[in-house]
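Practice problem: predict the structure.
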Amino acid sequence: MKKNILILKNDKGGDLLNSIKCISSILNKNNKVTIYLSQFNYGFAFLFKNALVKKINYDLNLINKLHFLYLILRNNYDEIYILTPKNFYYFLSFIFRKIKFFGITVNGVRRYRPSLFLRKFLYKFVTIDRKNINLKSSSELQLELIANENLLDLDCKNLNTPQLENYIKENIPTEFIFIQYKENFYNKINLKTNNFDLLLNQINIKFKYIIFFSDIEKTSSNNFFLEKYNFIDCERKIVNFENKDPNIIYLHNINSENLFSIIENSKIVLCPHGLLTHICKFYKKESINIFNFTIKNKADVIHQKIAFSEWYKNMSIKFLFLNSDTKKTINKIIKNL
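Answer:
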């Protein structure tokens, strides 16, 4: 019997990829699935070929909440999966008690989400602990929401993986290192613009071809990259290769589909930890993930270990912890590539 299922996943891109195996397992031929994504992760809607995908705000307003009440009243849902732990969603399980609610719950340092009282109305839930080290990552825990182990889709065969568009594929090398530039992160480790160029030149000694991309937002760094390097404008589909270093290519305003597929085509990925970490895991690609945070005391160390156990436990990926010493940072990155 075909089940009518609603998945609530309106959060960030990295969060979405963290739930990807769970969602893919729900997207089997026996289910009719509707997925709600946010403005931040809707760009990855292309993955869900077997579902009806809709957009809702990341932060729910009153109209959004009324919409969900109406939606559930109008549709005869058999199951609802709360994969984004927003407080309002748990109240729905209290109101609509005939529906089976599955969800992520959080034991926070200051409060539980939801309360122990509301958890009683969830048909099944898994708990992320933010007070202690998690034995399983959030991604692993979510798979426990799938009642029938025979329906687990660990290889994500129910998803629609994209192909790199020809205007990019025909203008890039077949083997390259792929790098993510995030201005706010690279500012912290003193690798903005000219210093980032120093890093690329050092990497270029080890890897013949480098492809990198940056924030979609308009930043001073983006203007610098457009002037400094050969680039492909992915928004306007313009290839601009002038008399510049032919071994370094900047992808300007790359969309989610091409970002997903270019990682599949890359040899290795260098990125701040986050969204790309999870895409690399999806494609089983080698990645170097860079961190920067200030450790003031033992409590900060414990907090970071707990966060790591939630997001990256059992992921077999390499991490580098960097500071604002440019020379040491570049040397450390090169040494680990």
